Amino acid sequence: MKRNLHGGLFIVFEGLDGSGQSTQAKLLEEYFKWLRVPTLLTKEPTQWTMAGKEIEKVLDEKIVIEPLKFQKLFARDRAQHLKDEIIPALKQGKMVICDRYAFSSMAYGGLDTSISKLVILNSKFICPNRVFFLKVSPVECLRRIEDRGEGIKFFEKSEKLKKVAANYECVAKRFGLVFNVIDGERRIEEIHHEIVSNLKTFFYGRGIGLL
Questions:
Q1: Is-contact 10 98, C-beta < 8 A?
Q2: Model confidence over 157-211: pLDDT tens digits?
């Protein structure tokens, strides 16, 4: 993946479904806004690109698609997401927080496709400055999903989540310099505090006095 040379800072949250990554992404957005730092919170897959709409149909099990073609849909969605939303915000100097990115494609797509192929498929996209992976056991994730009362969806079945967790371990090793593994089985406030502390160290090392 390419370095972010667009200005701004690109922060990504990753994790199994039910890990709490969306909650932490929202808390970080609120924190930056409290500091009056221009911020964009976004997520993948999008719901506004043509590819994103097709992805939603597959995830809802309304249509079936061959695994590699499915991952190419994610790549198309990501390319447009970057072009139309993420990169313009970075060029404006904003903090961009993304709930899931290419690493989700590698971990989840790796259920049916080679992770190496997926790394290549996403190799032209920019690499985030920081990735926070919330590590939560598949059993705990499923418990949280069931507690939400939303039903178990496409990628949320027990055996799939176990394989995805193993794939995330492989992805974390490949992108170790930007990947930060966070214990996601603690209180929400504790997790948020660790993420902010991590970013303070990261910014301090680059002479950025935002936090």
A1: yes
A2: 778 889 999 999 999 999 988 999 999 999 999 999 999 999 998 887 666 666 5
Amino acid at 93: G
Residue 69 has what DSSP assignment?
A: H
Q: d(Cα 7, Cα 95) in Å, to the nearest integer? A: 9
Q: How many domains does the chain have?
A: 1
Burial class (CB in 10 A: 0-12, 13-18, 19+), 100: buried
Q: What share of the chain is helix, strand, coil (3-state, %, to 5)?
A: 50, 15, 35
Rounded to the nearest 5 degrees, what angle is found at the Cα of 19, between the Cα atoms of 15 and 25?
75
| CATH classification at residue 14 | 3.40.50.300
